[in-house]
Structure formats: structure tokens, C-alpha cells
Specification:
CATH class of one domain: Mainly Alpha
CATH topology of one domain: Butyryl-CoA Dehydrogenase, subunit A, domain 3
Mean pLDDT: 93
Low-confidence stretches: none
Strand content: 5-15%
Structural class: alpha+beta
Number of strands: 9
Helix content: 40-55%
CATH architecture of one domain: Up-down Bundle
CATH superfamily of one domain: Butyryl-CoA Dehydrogenase, subunit A, domain 3
Radius of gyration: 20 Å
Length: 333
């Protein structure tokens, strides 16, 4: 870890671990946006982590995105960070305020569904199509009609009617991720953080909860489940780190696809284990675990589910040919 990454990790860990309490998250789910936290994030310059200077990297931003998932932070920081980087890479002027991301298969789409934080955003970057068919627009949210909706974690995922506000075209960057790929990368890293939080919660509970006179973490069956959980958490984190490093290069789509598939596919097993270790208490609203698991369940399908990202992997394997498949899978080992 380089010095910038270490400083960012220390900053966001201290901020979010202290500020993002269960009470703050419950208040958010009751309709109270954490204005004070958002002000702190702005004051610390976290919105500009990916655009602060020419040395700003997705690798360093990983620490911020990971912490957002690890602490279930209910603010539109990840989307705004990514959107600002996309605009900078395209040589576009970066507007002030909150910027979010959206994707649609068809340019003729009139209503964007499940747009993160749209009701609070000032702008949305809309990508339509992929590959050579990709088109990108920057649209002021104030010109559109927004229908307030939420995902299973009660995060804002609004529908945006853009029929009267198509926005203006934005140049495609020559390197780095597209809007869809950036969204998938962000969610992969956030899932990695959420899974790390689940592992911490499960291990702590297994050490504290006693049964038959000893901590349940001493039982072999629990130890085996925790080992499986730790393995999946490590795999998702490594895939997400690799994708973040690739995003600093020219064409990161394959590494981002791998990360999103690994992250999304892991959610069912990891959340099941975490809840099994906790037993019934993990399902109660008073316990912190569900803040993590509900986000992981929601994020796995955002910005492309597993089947979407399997397509570029399959096409790449077919183009590379059978003779390269093994070396591609093993990194030349």
C-alpha cells in the first residue's frame, strides 16, 4: 500500500467508524439524510479523490470505496467520485454538486430505472449501449422528472423520466472505464467492504456467544463456516483490488467483469453463512448485520448482474482462442 492509500484508509476508517452509527443508518432509513456527514466528506475533499491531481488513481480510491461498503455509509460519495473521474478523463468540465451514474441498453429509453441517489443529484451521466455503440450524455437532474424509489437496503434508487431532458453528449475517454464499467467497479469494491464487515461481525459474535459452556467459535462446524466465509471475502477483495488497478490503465473491462462476477456470485453464500453464525438475532432490525447483508444483496445486481459481465469474458476467451485459455486463467503459470 502506497502512502496516499494508507492516509486515505486511515482518514475514512476513523471518520466512518465513528460517525456512521446504527442510529445514523436507521435515521437515514426513516428519511433523514446525514447532512453533517456529507458536509464532513466534502470538507475532507473526498469527492475529489479521483481528480485531485494527475497522480490520483483508482488504486488509492479503492480504500474510500471499500470503507463505504465496510461501514454501510448512506451517502452518494462513490457515484460522485466515479462520475467526476469519468468527466475528467473525457476532457470535460466537472460541474459542482452531486453527480450520479445510470445505464440504459437503448438510446431511445425514456425512463431510467434505479438511478442511485437521483433525487439528491445535480447531474447524471447516462451511458447507453456498450462497446462501439456506447454513447454518453450529461444531464441536469433538475430538468427531468424523478420518482422516488429505494432498493432493498432503503438506499435511494429513483426512476428518472428523461423524455424532456436528453442532456448533452459527452466525449468518450480514450482510456479507463466507461460509466457502466465504473459503476460495476464501484459496486464490486463496496461489496468487498460489506463482506469484510460481515466477516468481522460473524467472528466477533462467534467469540462472544457461548453455548454449552464455551464460545460457539470453538465448535468445528462454526470454524469451518467462518473459514469458508474468510476465503470468499479474500477472493472478492483481491479481485476488486485488481480491477481498481486495471482501471488506471487503457482497457479494464475484463478485470472489472471478473471482479463484478466474483463479488456478485459471492453474496448468496457469504450472507447465508454470516446469518447462520448469528442465528435468529442476525435477522432482527436492532442488530447491525442486516445493514451489510441488505446492501450486498442490492449491489450485486446494480450496474450489471453476473450474466451481463459473463458476456465480455466469453467473447474475450473466444477471440483469444483455445490455445491461450489456460495461460489467461492462470496468469501464465
Amino acid at each position: 500500500m502506497d502512502e496516499i492509500s494508507r492516509l486515505l484508509q486511515e482518514t475514512v476508517t476513523k471518520l466512518f467508524s465513528e460517525a456512521v452509527t446504527p442510529e445514523l443508518i436507521r435515521n437515514f432509513e426513516d428519511g433523514q439524510f446525514p447532512e453533517e456527514l456529507w458536509a464532513q466528506v466534502q470538507e475532507l475533499g473526498l469527492l475529489d479523490v479521483l481528480v485531485a491531481d494527475d497522480d490520483s488513481t483508482w488504486t488509492s480510491a479503492y480504500e474510500v470505496l471499500f470503507a463505504l461498503g465496510r461501514w454501510s455509509v448512506p451517502i452518494p460519495l462513490a457515484e460522485t467520485m466515479a462520475a467526476r473521474r469519468l468527466l475528467r478523463d473525457a476532457g470535460e468540465e466537472i460541474p459542482e454538486g452531486i453527480i450520479t451514474l445510470a445505464y440504459a441498453d437503448d438510446y431511445a429509453t425514456k425512463v431510467l430505472t434505479g438511478v442511485p441517489w437521483a433525487r439528491m443529484a445535480d447531474y447524471v451521466i447516462v451511458q447507453t449501449g456498450t462497446g462501439d455503440e456506447t454513447q454518453i450524455r450529461l444531464m441536469p437532474i433538475g430538468e427531468a422528472n424523478v420518482s422516488n424509489k429505494t432498493n432493498i437496503a432503503l438506499e435511494y434508487r429513483d426512476d428518472v423520466d428523461i423524455s424532456v431532458a436528453p442532456g448533452r453528449p459527452v466525449r468518450k475517454a480514450n482510456r479507463g472505464p466507461t460509466a457502466l464499467e465504473a459503476g460495476a467497479l464501484v459496486r464490486s469494491v463496496q461489496i468487498a467492504g460489506a463482506l469484510d464487515g460481515m466477516l468481522h461481525e460473524a467472528v466477533t459474535y462467534a467469540q462472544d456467544r457461548t453455548q454449552f459452556g464455551k464460545p460457539i467459535g470453538k465448535f468445528q462446524a462454526i470454524q469451518q463456516q467462518l473459514a469458508v466465509l474468510a476465503g470468499r471475502v479474500a477472493a472478492v477483495g483481491r479481485a476488486a483490488q485488481t480491477a481498481a488497478a486495471a482501471a488506471d490503465g487503457d482497457d479494464p473491462v475484463i478485470d472489472i467483469a471478473i471482479a463484478k462476477i466474483e463479488a456478485s456470485d459471492s453474496v448468496s453464500e457469504t450472507t447465508s453463512i454470516a446469518h447462520q453464525v448469528h442465528g435468529a438475532i442476525g435477522f432482527t432490525y436492532e442488530h447491525h448485520l442486516h445493514f451489510l447483508t441488505r446492501r450486498a444483496w442490492a449491489w450485486r445486481n446494480e450496474f450489471g448482474a453476473t450474466h451481463h459481465w459473463a458476456l465480455p469474458l466469453g467473447r474475450n476467451a473466444a477471440q483469444r482462442g483455445a490455445e491461450n485459455l489456460w495461460s489467461d486463467l492462470t496468469g501464465g503459470v
